[in-house]
Amino acid sequence: MGVKTTSRIVSCLALAALTVAGCGNKAGDEKPTNGTASGAPIIIGLDEDSTGSGASYSTIAGKTIRLAVQDVNDKGGVLGRPLQLVVENDESDPTKVPAVLQKLAGQGAKALFLQSGSAAILQAKSTLTALGLPAIAPTGVTATLVQPPDNELIYMLANTTTDWADVYCGAFKAANITKLGVLTDDTTTIAALDKALLPALSCVQIVATEKGAANASDLSAQVARLKNANPDAVLVTSVGGAFEVLAQNTLGSQMKGTKRFSLASIGNQPSSWKLAAPGALEGLIFMGSINTANPRTQALVTLLKEKYGKDYDITAYDAQAWDSVHVLKQAIEKAGGVDDSKKLNEAIQSIKGYPATFGQANFTLSFGADKHLGADGPCGLSLIEFGADNKPKGPWATFQPPCNK
Question: Signal peptide: which range, if any (predicted)?
Answer without folding.
Answer: 1-16
